């Protein structure tokens, strides 16, 4: 353990009582409990504080509580009542390499929240709330005038504030699809929570986060497995969150989602993956999904209307292709993906001859020419937000026009960011 403290005017001996000050009292208390303090850091910010820090160091050494090598005095000249200056000082000390080398790696950090000015005391509370004490505790030592002998040292429990911050961090991580981060924070949240109900939903929360992570990776089988492991009727705090969760579970359990052939359900899933990547500013991935959706629409259309799998070698469907052309009295534009799309565009968009649609087709052609979605393929120019914003509404319009059934799926899609957050809220986050 590392113990951090500011030096106050009652250290090492109180001027107004015959008792030792908070630093010495706390060190004796920790020793009596068998707590090993590997290093003591005493901080000061003015001439008076520096003198008391030095006196405390000498007293602790004389009393045999600390060896001189295990005590570190750090002084920074400044106003000890300046909250910003004090907070920046203590944060810099705790994060310094010298501080970490003074004890075992990731040792808990205890803080004496008694000595010093109100600003100095508050800095320890801020450390705890920010999660920088690494499992340590903020201690307070009461004036002996007001408490009974033996009850001066008490811990300051701030977990309820830290818990609130962790919940916010989990929600933020999920919004950015940073699920490994969200899972790690969740484990800390469950460890420190003051609510028994929160500990009871630890398992379901982890299953939900892993399901969302699997969905983002298009591993729908794993997402389904994680969702099915949750007894929803027992863990949700309100009916609305439970209803959203059940809709999500039905969506992920639908066999069409992971079917090898294109269908309305998995095309809508690709559409919303684009939106998620766009929110995360992963524009290269979003543009790649736009291309994937465009191809999927074309493949689905020919399969649904003509029972032709255009992804197979040409020799396997060329006869069916020409038969379809003759039947529909259409000219053969060729068998490239763009030619196939050109063949059916009039079926999808009523205003195919308008200037607006011609401009949209040009934009799509530019996207289709992007074979390898990398910086090199773009002439070292990155994919920008405007590139995705330009193409996304076009492919969405094509999807709805080609497969009207997708309209209902889009309106009722249960795995939007808002609905994900609603489920987590229903689990206590």
Strand-helix topology:
Layout: E1 2-6, H1 22-32, E2 39-44, H2 47-62, E3 71-75, H3 83-94, H4 97-101, E4 109-112, H5 118-129, E5 138-141, E6 153-156, H6 159-175, H7 179-192, H8 196-200, H9 202-216, H10 220-228, H11 232-235, H12 239-253, H13 264-279, H14 283-306, H15 314-328, H16 337-348, H17 355-368, H18 385-402, H19 406-411, H20 417-426
What does this structure look like?
- This protein is of the alpha/beta class and 429 residues long.
- It has 3 domains: 2-157, Hypothetical protein VC1899 like domain (Restriction endonuclease-like) (Rossmann fold, 3-Layer(aba) Sandwich); 161-257 and 419-426; 263-411.
- It contains 20 helices and 6 strands.
- The protein has helices spanning 22-32, 47-62, 83-94, 97-101, 118-129, 159-175, 179-192, 196-200, 202-216, 220-228, 232-235, 239-253, 264-279, 283-306, 314-328, 337-348, 355-368, 385-402, 406-411, 417-426; strands at residues 2-6, 39-44, 71-75, 109-112, 138-141, 153-156.
- A 6-stranded mixed sheet has the order 3-2-1-4-5-6, sandwiched between helices.
- Strand 1 (2-6), helix 1 (22-32) and strand 2 (39-44) form a beta-alpha-beta unit.
- Helix 7 runs antiparallel to helix 9 (202-216).
- The longest helix has 24 residues, at 283-306.
- It is elongated, with a radius of gyration of 32 Å.
- 34% of the residues are buried.
Please outline what is shown here.
With 429 residues, the chain is of the alpha/beta class. 58% of the residues lie in helices and 7% in strands.
- Give the strand order of the largest sheet, numbering strands 1, 2, ... along the chain: 3-2-1-4-5-6
The total of helices stands at: 20
Structural class by sheet pairing and helices: alpha/beta
Within CATH, the superfamily of the largest domain carries the name Hypothetical protein VC1899 like domain (Restriction endonuclease-like)
C-alpha-based Rg, rounded: 32 Å
Shape: elongated
Q: Pick out the low-confidence regions.
A: 329-335
| Total individual domains | 3
Number of strands: 6
Mean pLDDT: 80
Fold-level CATH name of the largest domain:
Rossmann fold
Strand percentage: 5-15%
- What CATH architecture of the largest domain do you see? 3-Layer(aba) Sandwich
Characterize the largest beta sheet: strand count, sense, and whether it forms a barrel: 6 strands, mixed
Helix content: 55-70%
The ordered string of helix (H) and strand (E) elements is: EHEHEHHEHEEHHHHHHHHHHHHHHH
Distance between the termini: 31 Å
Name of the level-1 CATH class of the largest domain: Alpha Beta
């Amino acid at each position: 353990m590392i113990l951090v403290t500011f030096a106050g005017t009652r250290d090492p001996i109180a001027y107004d009582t015959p008792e030792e000050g908070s630093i010495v009292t706390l060190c004796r208390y920790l020793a009596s409990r068998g707590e090993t303090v590997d290093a003591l850091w005493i901080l000061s910010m003015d001439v008076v504080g520096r003198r008391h820090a030095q006196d405390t160091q000498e007293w602790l050494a004389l009393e045999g509580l600390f060896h001189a090598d295990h005590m570190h005095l750090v002084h920074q000249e400044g106003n000890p009542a300046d909250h910003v200056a004090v907070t920046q000082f203590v944060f810099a000390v705790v994060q310094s390499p010298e501080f970490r080398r003074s004890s075992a790696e990731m040792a808990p950090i205890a803080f004496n929240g008694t000595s010093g000015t109100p600003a100095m005391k508050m800095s320890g509370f801020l450390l705890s709330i920010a999660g920088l004490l690494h499992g340590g505790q903020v201690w307070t030592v009461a004036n002996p005038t007001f408490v009974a002998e033996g009850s001066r040292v008490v811990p300051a429990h701030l977990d309820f504030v830290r818990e609130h911050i962790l919940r916010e961090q989990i929600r933020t991580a999920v919004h950015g699809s940073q699920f490994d981060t969200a899972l790690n924070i969740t484990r800390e949240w469950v460890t420190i929570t003051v609510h028994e109900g929160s500990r009871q939903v630890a398992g379901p929360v982890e299953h939900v986060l892993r399901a969302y992570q699997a969905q983002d990776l298009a591993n729908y089988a794993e997402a389904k497995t994680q969702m099915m492991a949750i007894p929803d009727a027992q863990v949700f705090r309100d009916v609305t969150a439970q209803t959203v969760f059940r809709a999500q579970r039905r969506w992920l359990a639908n066999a069409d989602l992971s079917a090898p052939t294109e269908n309305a359900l998995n095309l809508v899933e690709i559409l919303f993956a684009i939106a998620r990547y766009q929110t995360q500013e992963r524009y290269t991935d979003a543009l790649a999904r736009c291309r994937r959706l465009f191809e999927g629409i074309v493949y689905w259309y020919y399969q649904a209307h003509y029972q032709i799998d255009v992804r197979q070698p040409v020799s396997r469907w060329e006869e069916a292709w020409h038969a379809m052309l003759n039947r529909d009295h259409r000219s053969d534009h060729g068998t490239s993906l763009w030619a196939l799309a050109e063949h059916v565009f009039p079926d999808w968009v009523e205003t195919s001859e308008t200037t607006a649609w011609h401009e949209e087709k040009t934009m799509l052609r530019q996207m289709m020419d992007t074979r390898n979605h990398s910086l090199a393929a773009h002439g070292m120019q990155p994919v920008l937000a405007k590139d995705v914003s330009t193409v996304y509404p076009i492919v969405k319009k094509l999807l709805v026009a080609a497969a009207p059934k997708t309209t209902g799926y889009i309106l009722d899609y249960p795995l939007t960011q808002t609905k994900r957050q609603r489920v987590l809220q229903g689990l206590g986050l």
